[in-house]
From TrEMBL:
Residues 36-135, 136-232, 242-324, 322-424 form the Cadherin domain. Pfam families: Cadherin. GO terms for molecular function: calcium ion binding. The keyword NAD does not apply. SUPFAM superfamilies: Cadherin-like. It comes from the Eukaryota. This is Cadherin domain-containing protein. Keywords: Calcium, Cell adhesion, Disulfide bond, EGF-like domain, Glycoprotein, Membrane, Repeat, Signal, Transmembrane, Transmembrane helix. The lineage of its organism: Eukaryota, Metazoa, Ecdysozoa, Arthropoda, Hexapoda. InterPro entries: Cadherin-domain_protein, Cadherin-like_dom, Cadherin-like_sf, Cadherin_CS. GO terms for cellular component: cell-cell junction; plasma membrane.
Length: 451
């Protein structure tokens, strides 16, 4: 304030004097300062480094004498992850993790020594791809019928990724994995299956996200449907004179009950009888040539059958044909081309003559072969995990007149070899523990599989 003060004398002659007085009002801290907003909003990535400023607080005070403010976070920051400078800058002073907490409601107080002002700051933690995918199950096993159409869902893969928007990719590997396809987390059939060609699929599922990978093994067993008609191996049979029994052989590529065969003579006759289960034909009437019609039916649903006309011719030799059974154990890692067994060494009766050897049953997928010397060899790589045993039926005839001599069943039992490397279910693991965790506490269960 400015004032003019006049002093005058009442005595004549009158005299006056004046002066100016300036009054300055000194400020005192009598007004409350205020934040520019009652609520502030800000967002920050969860991988933001400590020390980064995320918000500038704005405070005004009507007092002309600006008093120094101090800032304190009074609520909403239990683990001291945020700090405020004396200039009102809010910054990160501890690591944040969206998967632990995705939002903070901070209460911040500004104090000037007399007055306290409050505001709220809403901090949203934005997601980044920093969490590994987890394969919940390390092993899946499911059956599927060989008639299942393309596009059918087999199973749903259970994967956990704590990121807000998972970025993992799925991939399949394994022999013939292209018979299946992945759509999101769903495994579906991509091609029609045929159990007679392949009865089991063993797939490896890889779930990849940045540098992380987890693995699941998927076992798929193809269940048989009765879709294969039984077939006779031969309808023209030559026997030695005096033979009263011979085995009629038919095969069915189906599995289980579907391949159980029943034999039946189509016409009533006193010349023959046949065992309906084994196919053993009993010749009762000693003629030189026989003709008959034989039916074989499987036990599947629907039943399939085959009917053929047979010719049997008897020759002059008195030898009698029979079936010989021989068992052998073979390691699954036996090399292709290696010998399994030589027929002449297990049948002492095969001497002083030339013979023709033919595999007539049990080798539908061509894993074995036999040469002109009667040596049975491995033709394809064997796998104990896929097939554990084979029964190979070999027909032996005389090369001069092709008279039936003998049927040999070679039972090959595969033995397991350690040919599959163990696989860790998850290659990269990330775990979080409290610093005060007790010694001896379990951190994580490491899993591996070995087929």
């Amino acid at each position: 304030y400015e004032m003019l003060v006049v002093a005058s004398s009442p005595i004549s002659p009158e005299s006056t004097s004046n002066t100016k007085i300036q009054v300055s009002i000194l400020d005192v801290n009598d007004n409350t300062h205020r934040f520019s907003q009652d609520i502030y909003y800000t967002a920050v990535n969860e991988d933001t480094h400590v020390g980064i400023v995320i918000l500038q607080l704005d405070v005004s005070d009507p007092d002309t004498q600006i008093n120094k403010l101090q800032y304190f976070i009074t609520n909403g920051d239990s683990y001291a992850q945020f700090c405020v400078t004396d200039t009102g800058q809010l910054y990160i002073c501890g690591e944040v993790d969206r998967e632990v907490q995705d939002e903070y409601n901070l209460t911040i107080a500004a104090i000037d020594g007399v007055f306290v002002s409050l505001c709220n700051v809403m901090v949203t933690i934005l997601d980044v791809n920093d969490e590994p995918p987890v394969c919940v199950h390390s092993y899946y096993s499911t059956p599927v019928s060989e008639t299942t159409p393309r596009g059918t869902t087999l199973l749903t893969i259970n994967i956990i990724d704590e990121d807000l928007e998972p970025n993992f990719e799925l991939a399949l590997s394994g022999q013939d994995h292209n018979y299946f396809t992945l759509e999101s987390k769903t495994l579906k059939i991509a091609k029609l299956l045929d159990r007679e060609l392949k009865s089991n699929y063993r797939l490896i599922l890889y779930v990849k996200d940045k540098s992380w990978t987890c693995i699941s093994t998927i076992n798929i067993d193809v269940e048989d449907f009765n879709d294969e008609q039984p077939e006779f191996t031969s309808t023209s049979i030559s026997l030695n004179e005096g033979t009263i029994y011979t085995l009629i052989h038919a095969v069915d590529k189906d599995k289980g009950v579907n391949r159980y065969l029943k034999y039946h003579l189509e016409q009533n006759t006193t010349q023959f009888s046949i065992n309906s289960d084994s196919g053993l034909l009993h010749i009762k009437d000693p003629l030189v040539k026989y003709s008959f019609t034989l039916n074989v039916t499987d036990s599947g649903n629907p039943q399939l059958q085959k009917t053929e006309n047979f010719q049997i011719t008897l020759y002059g030799s008195k030898e009698t044909a029979d079936t010989f059974v021989y068992q052998i154990s073979l390691p699954e890692n036996t090399l292709v081309g290696n010998q399994v067994v030589q027929i002449e060494k297990i049948l002492n009766s095969l001497k002083d003559s030339k013979y023709v050897y033919n595999i007539v049953a049990g080798n539908e997928n061509g894993y074995f072969g036999i040469d002109q010397f009667g040596i049975l060899k491995v033709s394809k790589p064997l796998d104990y995990e896929t097939t554990k045993a084979y029964t190979i039926s070999i027909l032996i005839t005389n090369s001069n007149d092709l008279i039936f001599m003998k049927m040999v069943d070679i039972i090959i039992n595969l033995s397991d070899c350690n040919d599959n490397a163990p696989i860790f279910i998850t290659k990269n693991l990330k775990i979080k523990v409290k610093e005060d965790i007790a010694i001896g506490s379990q951190l994580i269960q490491i899993e591996a599989v070995d087929s």
